[in-house]
Amino acid sequence: MSTSPATDAPPPPSPTGPLLEVVDLKTHYVTARGIVRAVDGVSLSLDRGRTLGVVGESGSGKTQLARSIMGLLPAKNVRREGRIIYEGRDILSIPPPEMRRVWGAEIAMVFQDPMTSLNPVMKVGKQITESLCFHLRMPKAKARETAVALLGSVGIPEPARRLEEYPHQLSGGMRQRVTIAIALACGPKLLFADEPTTALDVTVQAQILDLLQHQQQERHMAMVLVTHDLGVVAGRTDHIAVMYGGKIVEQATTTGLFADMHHPYTEALLHSIPRVEQASHTRLTAIGGRPPDLVNPPAGCNFAPRCPYVHDRCLTEEPPLLVADSPDHLYRCWSPVGTPEAREHRARNEAAGIGIEPSAAAPEVPLGMGRVPNPDFDGSPGTPRFGGAPGAPGV
Predict the structure, then answer these.
(1) Do 233 and 118 share a domain, yes or no?
(2) What is the pLDDT of residues 330-378, one digit of tens each?
(3) What pTM value is reported for the model?
(4) Which strands form 222-227's sheet, in the order they lie side by side?
(5) Considering its fold, how many domains does the chain have in total?
(6) Residue-number span of the structural domain to which 308 is assigned
């Protein structure tokens, strides 16, 4: 009796459920000053092939969240609690030697600064083929051939020649493309992109973001895009989580968040984005105050000292994550933006001189640099072209 060939067998069922699920994740550092609550009770989920944007200013906990999920943390003086479910398996307690089989092969990261993430004394080709040989057991010749194809796929010209160059011989944009090629080498299912465009100029930023989006769609790969700019995630993510003080203060679908944002911090981030229609040298809108001290956070809402809608309850009671009109839209605020209560609190605060943005009250500075033209400048050597701001010495 003959048997059916293997090719006739039905394909295995596709996995169901979220690819990544984080439940009440906490990452605390033990320091001389006290316990730093870098990540303080974060919960989120990410489906296969989807993109999550994690947004917040520096110090909000974005990078620490990504590193905590991957397990890229110091060996000492750090406490990590909660659950990190990846493909149905809790990877929180997996020791580093075993996680080495996951890093690169299953979960990868594009780091913020390629000059610190790339080895400066190792050729580009060696840095790419290293993971191919370790995870996929490729022969060196096959790994080199794959590395050439990878560099070509991320838009690097003359990829075969670039394999023999060192990182310092490449431009900033090309170095970032190399880090992307290394992260994608073994075909990970989940990619963290930690502010991958911070050190690049505007035109290269757009190219890198387009490249990441194209690779993510082509490989059906889940991606977490970490950035401080809401404009970056506006058209490139499916969901957005806004972080502040180590916590998620608002999360929703991308369209839902921009259509109806509830948290004052989300609104402040949006207003801080420069706009093309603004007149030249217009003063940028800044968020007044400073981020909270994660060793001694405020008693109530972390954003209360900087919030234009603050009222008594915000100073004494921390708001939980509340559900908005849509079940997938959560926010952490007692007076969400757009409500009559929020407008009333803001009007009262402005009347009392509380919560007014410094940029709204400060006078506009000519030329946007704090300098004004020197009326005595005649082109002769030694004559300063610009004077300082009023009352300042000439420059």
Answers:
(1) yes
(2) 999 999 999 999 999 999 999 988 754 443 333 333 333 333 334 443 4
(3) 0.82
(4) 107-110, 190-194, 222-227, 51-55, 239-244, 247-253, 330-331, 322-323
(5) 2
(6) 255-275+284-361
